[in-house]
Specification:
With about 230 residues, the protein is of the alpha/beta class. Helices cover about 30% and strands about 30% of the residues. Strand 1 (about 1-5), helix 1 (about 10-25) and strand 2 form a beta-alpha-beta unit.
Length: about 230
Amino acid sequence: MNCIIIEDQPPAQRILKKYIEDMGSLVLKGTFSDAIQAMEYLKTEPIDVIFLDIHLPKLSGIDFLKTMPNPPSVILTTAFSEYALESYEFNVVDYLLKPFSFQRFVKAVSKVSKRKMAVPPEHKKTRENPLKKEIYIKSGHEHIKITIDDIHHITSDSDYTEIITAEWKYVSSEPLRFWLETLPNDQFCRVHRSHIVNTGKIEKIIGNQVLLKEGVKLPIGRAYKDDFMQRILK
């Protein structure tokens, strides 16, 4: 999910940037010290999540929300609790009181994900379509057809991804989020900011590691562990 920060205090900006980086599922597209700058940016750039402070120069966070009839998902980050009730009139996702922990940050972001999962039935059916058995992987100038069930895991490495099967490793220019959106989400699960696994290939879970067939071990990121374990043990 693409996100921006609207926050005028550098220490708070640094904390949010670190949390966003550790989260893995978020991509920071910009940081703004006042809401006026952010408004101009949002006129042309699609954003999924805004991390918004309330006490800002020129225009407060609440007044900023009043100017936007259809804002992206908004998570408020503030040191003042007295605005909580008013803020929920604008359908904000969550209200984080400073200083907040990484765990609390993850919980807020997960609420955004849950909202996005509430998609129309026809769209959800397309994403979870069990009839799709093969996909084409774009590798350089080639499009290579592989069977979805043959994929063991997908790993992100800088600007490309590696799709690993028992027989071969394919290099693709598509980012990790592309595979999250393309592959069946009832079969593939993100366990780390750099790894997606085929749950059908899991042999066992040992602490914070997933052991796949062929003896491959992958780490489980703390931001993904709860969701991953719930899906595996449901």
